[in-house]
Amino acid sequence: MTTLIRVASLEDIPALRELINESVRALSLAYYTPQQVESGLLHIFGVDVQLIVDRTYFVAEVAGRIVGCGGWGKRKRLYGWDQPESNELDDLLEPSRDAARIRAFFVHPKWSRRGIGRQIMLECEEECWNAGFQRMELVATLSGEPLYSALGYTKTDRTEMRTRDGKSLSAFRMEKFLGKEPRRSTQERPIAVEVK
Question: pLDDT per residue over 89-98, tens digit each?
Answer without folding.
Answer: 578 999 999 9
